[in-house]
Amino acid sequence: MPCRAQGTDRDEEMVGNGRDGETQDPLRMQCHAAALRGAERYLGAIQDVGVPFPLGRGQQGGRITSTSCSGGKGAGNVARGLCSWSLHTLLGITPQTTQQVLLGEEEIIQREQRCLGRAERETKEQQQFSIDDLKAQPNQTTFWDGVRNYQARNFLRAMKLGQQAFFYHSNCKEPGIVAIVKIVKEAYPDHTQFDQKDPHYDSSSRKENPKWSMVDVQFVRMTKRFIPLSEIKSHHLAHKADGGPLKNMMLFTRQRLSIQPLTQEEFDFVLSLEEEKPH
Fold first, then answer.
1. Does the keyword Nucleus apply (predicted)?
2. Running DSSP on this structure, what letter comes out for residue 37?
3. What is the domain partition of the chain in residue ranges?
4. Consecutive H or E run containing 102
5. Nearest Cα to 55, choosing from 34, 31, 30, 27?
6. Quick one: pLDDT at residue 257?
């Protein structure tokens, strides 16, 4: 099941939108509440709610926006993009650390210029979508829907026109990279969240403030050869030891997230593998 952090009006009212200096005690209460009910529920409760809060002396106040939860497994018309930042460490931490973690998430969105997208090739009929399906679409373009994870959604919303991504077949006998796609329409509301017949329907989402977004992607080209997950993982393990470009690749450190970023260095290295003979 997708990870859905359910926010309530009461939770949002507790967060509030007061001026700096007025939310110190409620924020402390939130941190304690988060430790009790789990970071996912807390993050979902404040998703898309701007929350100004005071920091220590000499520090500037900030705003919490578009928070997220990790985990989950989405499936929709097209592959899930990949981009993530773990927020499980939010349990029982200070407001200062909260801001640093959330800002860290936004900073990584801006820093990472490439993504890796997963398509579920051998799953249920209504969920599977391969590169051949994308190529068969009009203008070889379709929407990327069904993302139901706050972190994945945030990174999806950060995708820019023309940004490239690897198309990655998952949930199949041999997962791996098969093609390159590009973003041809930036984030807009995912209509499936309002469709009661769709498996990604979300009764808590409102049309005036939709929770979930999607982007349009277009086929660019096939990679010169199939690049299997096992091969990428072998490089990742070697680079962890020698400091190579894949040492921190999120495909292996945040496996359950459907959208993860790739640094330009990671993207270039993985792309260079298409020129090599299979291992």
1. yes
2. H
3. 9-275
4. helix 95-111
5. 27
6. 72
